[in-house]
Amino acid sequence: MGRPRMPCAAGINPITEEPPHSSTSGAAAGGDGGDPAGLACAISAKASAVLAVMRRSLRHPRSAADDAAADHPLVSSLKVLRRLVFTTAAAASPSLPVAALRPFLDAVRSEDAGAAVTSASLAALHEVMVLMEPSLPGAALREVVDAVASCRFEAGAKAAAEEAVLMQMLQVLLACLRAPAAAALGDQHVCTAVNTCFRVVHQAAAKGELLQRFSRHAMHELIQCVFARLPHIGSGDGGDGSVKPEMGGMDKSHPFGIKQMENGNGSYASEEVTSDENSVDGSGLVVELYGIPCMVEIFHFLCSLLNVVEQIRVDEDLPLFALKLINSAIKLGGSSIQKHTKLLSLVQDELFRNMMHFGLSGSPLILSMVCSIVLNLYHHLRNELKLQLEAFFSCIILRLAQPRFGATYHQQEVAMEALVDFCQQKNFMMELYANLDCDITCRNVFEELANLLSKSAFPINCPLSSMHILALEGLISVIQGMADRIGNATSRPELMPVELDEYTPFWAVKCENFSDPQHWVKFVRQRKYVKRRLMIGADHFNRDPKKGLEFLQGTHLLPEKLDPQSVACFFRYTAGLDKNLVGDFLGNHDEFCVQVLHEFAQTFDFQEMNLDTALRLFLETFRLPGESQKIQRVLEAFSDRYYEQSSQAFANKDTALLLAYSIIMLNTDQHNMQVKKKMTEEDFIKNNRNINGGSDLPREMLSELYHSICQNEIKTTPEQGMGYFEMSPSRWIDLMRKSKSTSLYIVGDSQPFLDHDMFAIMSGPTIAAIAVVFDHSEREEVLLTCVDGFLGVAKISAFHHLEDVLDDLVVSLCKFTTLLNTSLVEEPVTAFGDDLKARLATETLFTIANRYGDYIRTGWRNILDCILRLHKLGLLPARVASDATDDSEVSPETVHGKPTPSSISTSHIPVMGTPRKSSGLMGRFSQLLSLDRRPQKVASSPDDEDTAVFCLELLIAITLNNRDRIVLLWQGVYEHIANIVQSTVMPCALVEKAIFGLLRICQRLLPYKENLADELLRSLQLVLKLDARVADAYCDNITQEVAHLVKANAGHIKSQMGWRTVVLLLSITARHPDASEVGFEAIMYIMSEGAHLSLSNYAFCIEASRQFAESRVGLIDRSIRALDLMADSANSLARWSQETKGTSEEAEKGLEAIREMWLKLLQALKKLSLDQREEVRNHALSSLQQCLTATERVCLQSAPWSHAFDLIIFTLLDDLLEISQNHSQKDYRNMEGSLVLAMKLAAKVYLQLLPDLFGLSSFCKLWLGVLSRMEKYIKVKVRGKRSDKLHELIPELLKSILVVMKNRGILAKRSTIGGDSLWELTWLHVNNISTTLQSDVFSSQE
């Protein structure tokens, strides 16, 4: 919107106090840098110039006979001045400025001087003032103003000469107001200067354009000089002063004559001057500085220039000029205006009332200036102009910005420009919402303006125009304001839903503290809730009044038992009611309805209001019923209220009733087309005789009422709807009354307290409007503006968790990408690259997905469709679906120097690393929604397979980056991957991605989701179900990933099922030539030093170690290391056994489990003790012996030992013996050494455990089993020969055993256990081994 430019501030010198002239230096100071001689010469030159003109132009030329006597007084005074300035005394005199100016002032005032002399004198006066400006006292300036105001020169002067004089007058007045001592002019002289300037402006209308322009510029400068001082004046209008400024001196017959402004007691109020605002002029007198009184008078004068409404259609020049001056005054006065009551009241009432009329003029220039003034008033004084601003937007902007009310295109454009300017004020819309939309007595201005902007941005059946773009700018400014407030927010406001638990009079609710957001935010939201409910109640009432009232009772807006006051307030303050129904209700004869009617009348304030004005306001709120009895009741209630507040106007209330009835009759008579003979003024006065208590009412009152009704009809059928679009005088009076009692204006701050509610109202139309403009425009700057709007909407939606709004935005953007319909294009990639709109939409879409993806819901479906299309077109970067991986991770093709057997890029299978928070697109996906699962058969075409792989990559990336939502996603993800794994029989990219994606998911999520750990680990069983060809192709990499999973998450695997799955995956690699080493390293990581061994995984790890020990893949050294792991694991059993000691049932169960694991360990070692490889077999025997002889720390009872001998030792001895006798020596080399080790193992274990074994009931059987196997072993033949080693070893071992048994008293003569003679049976077997052992152990004496 075009605004008048503010004149350069440099043109207005700051007003400073004039220092006292206590020395002669002040008089000498001047434009010549303080040189008295130079100043004297300059003044003398100016005087000489004027003298030259005078000698030629004065009407009384001198006689040559006597020069001295014939000199004209004006000539004499100038000659004296020339002599005076060169005297030493004059140079030192403080009165020099006044003395130097006086001769020129006399010439200006003189009636003898012609136009040429006056012009020369004014020019000299101006130049001398400039020279002496720093030292000019206030008295001199006042004298200059008086002289210019009374300037006289001969009539009949040429037009050019007259214009020159007028221009010189303006220059001198400007110099006075710009002088340092200008503040000492006083209120009266400032008014005189402004009045004189305006007279020149008025006269210039009939003269040349140069004078017209200059005079208006001078007037503008004067107003700026005056009001620039306002911010420096203290608050208050001051008391009565001795100076009464007047804006007189102009032709009062002029239609723009100025009415003097007086206060209530008839004396003029001037500013109260404090001691520091006094000015000491050259005479030493203290004078009052000009201030509020003259500003009030000037401002009132400017407003009065707008009072003649009929001039609007004739001449826009003067009101436009007045508005420009008013705008400058408001700009300079700023917020200081509200400190002064009289100035503020002028702005609130007279200025705004006039602007409401001029705003509807047909002149776009006037409308533009009115809007500019209101914008400045909003910026500086909005907290004092709440209802005025509502009226401005309701009656002007909303009316003129749309064509349906008859506004021209230029008016629409100016109104829309003004609205956009307001929208660019960051908190404007928020303040409208808080102060008006949330006030039950005000219109929903914010909502109406937002709808207006949205509708105005729609190009309906027409090309995109500047008006559409303008409305779009306004919308986006509102959105940007909300987005900026989000940037300032420290946290998201917690907005609790508003509910009414009990009845409270809604019209009486007040806010406790408007300065504290905790109070006023809750207050305005509750008011808005009440307002919405009232409007819903109004809708119900319009359909059925009884049900409408019942609805309001149910929502606690009316009491359970209706009372007249609450119903009356509902009628009074609720917009949208059917006024016909309200009128019928109020006119009803029912007692309750009559009470409601009188309570309804009590809600009006008729104090100091004319009867017709009060009646207009009263009848605007409902339709006056047609029945005479109802009219009688309505007017009785009205007259009672009016008389109550204006009893001094009538003798009694019957007078008010009769006159009100008479006014209704007059209104019908004058404005009913069917009445042919109209009532005259005399008829009206005659009809109302003797109604005032038997006497007549004043004729002037009745005459005024008659003309008011004739000129302005009382609408007995008021317009329905949300309010008015015209500001009538009666409505303005009512507005001013309401403004005194309305709630305080809430000034917005930088926090988004109400943005959620506001955005919920405007989001739908806003997105639609931006989308339509984006669709219709091809200009890049407009498209970029739309993009800013889209991003702003997304930011607000995400911040306030408005997911539906964000989804709608995403859907709109997806349509503009053109990615979903490129099948119709021959070269889609080229077409997409050439389409700026499509590229902008795509970039915006993904920007929103990246930033606010956590709040997108159903919109992801559309985003994924776009992503898939970009993938098919080859426009996606390689890492788009794998951005969840860490940049520092190593590609699988570099692990152990082995390439990945894959048909797709290795970038699709990044090795797992430390989880991190991704900043990429996939990292922001919030949930998985209805992703199509792959069919049972692998995609047939390469394109389909590539798409399937890409979808799977997205799925995995989504899962990895949504660990907090994994419970929601996991079932669908697992089923999709399982479908791929179970339906694939040959290696391919899809199954590869599924396998390694599953492993990545498990590794990443195990540390964070303990409650889901079992589900994640169970999913790895899918790997075990792979087809053999697929498993073999990826075995190496699978093992690497599982090993990595174990090393990274061993501490997070707790359950038996989880360990079983993981260890099983590792153990099946034992016989794989490429994968076995990695698998074994992972087993070592678990078992070494018992770091990660637990009761849950012990048995599985022992079995896995056994498989690696048995495996012939790799070196024997790995089998040996596997045996060592098994042997060392016994230490863990011992530790657990010690930790589980106790007598509780739980401890017993724990110990029993440990014993079972010990037996499994022994069985595994026993199996390995039969290995064909000598080194493995012998090391297994040593390990088994180590485990059997180190069991003192394992809490074993005696019974398990019997099983250990039967299941482990005896079986081992028998199996070794059978192998040595029945298998080829080539298959089992050096079995003799193994037999020796086995026999040593049996003897050593027996001796160590003898104390425990002796107590067993089966001890005899166990002992005889040892003897029988020794007996067998000593007879063994190796390679057809007796084994010398065994032949030597067994007697020695047996002798040692017998000695120990003897010493412990176990083996003694006549000793019987179990009914058999242990002694006899022992020697029966021993003698078969060696006949000398009995005599060696037991001497003959024994």
Let me know the number of strands: 6
Strand order of the largest sheet: 1-2
Uncertain residue ranges: 1-33, 62-66, 238-243, 249-277, 310-314, 883-939
Mean pLDDT: 80
Main location: cytoplasm
Pfam family, one: TPR_28
Organism: Zizania palustris
GO molecular function: guanyl-nucleotide exchange factor activity
Report on the structure:
It is a single chain. This protein is mainly alpha-helical. Helix content is 61%, strand content 1%. The chain has 55 helices and six strands. Strands 1-2 form a two-stranded antiparallel ribbon. A two-stranded antiparallel sheet has the order 3-4. Strands 5-6 form a two-stranded antiparallel ribbon. The termini are far apart. Mean pLDDT is 80; it is low at 1-33, 62-66, 238-243, 249-277, 310-314 and 883-939.
In short:
The protein is mainly α. Helix content is 61%, strand content 1%. The strands form 3 sheets. It has a two-stranded antiparallel ribbon.
Q: Helices, strands, pairings?
A:
Elements: H1 25-28, H2 36-57, H3 67-70, H4 73-85, H5 88-92, H6 96-109, H7 115-131, H8 138-149, H9 159-178, H10 186-204, H11 209-227, E1 278-280, E2 286-288, H12 292-304, H13 317-333, H14 341-358, H15 364-381, H16 386-400, H17 409-423, H18 428-437, H19 445-456, H20 466-488, H21 517-543, H22 545-554, H23 564-573, H24 579-587, H25 591-602, H26 611-619, H27 628-645, H28 653-671, H29 681-687, H30 699-711, H31 729-741, H32 755-776, H33 780-799, H34 803-816, H35 828-834, H36 836-852, H37 859-872, H38 942-960, H39 966-983, H40 989-1005, H41 1013-1019, H42 1021-1024, H43 1028-1049, H44 1056-1067, H45 1076-1087, H46 1098-1110, H47 1116-1139, H48 1145-1168, H49 1174-1189, H50 1198-1222, H51 1231-1254, H52 1259-1274, E3 1277-1278, E4 1281-1282, H53 1284-1303, E5 1312-1313, E6 1316-1317, H54 1318-1329, H55 1333-1337
Antiparallel strand pairs: 1-2, 3-4, 5-6
Helix pairs in contact: 2-4, 2-7, 4-6, 6-7, 6-8, 7-9, 8-9, 8-10, 9-10, 9-11, 10-11, 10-12, 11-13, 12-14, 13-15, 15-17, 16-17, 16-19, 17-20, 19-20, 19-32, 20-32, 20-33, 21-22, 23-25, 25-27, 26-31, 27-28, 28-30, 32-33, 32-34, 33-34, 33-36, 34-36, 34-37, 38-39, 38-40, 39-40, 40-41, 40-43, ...
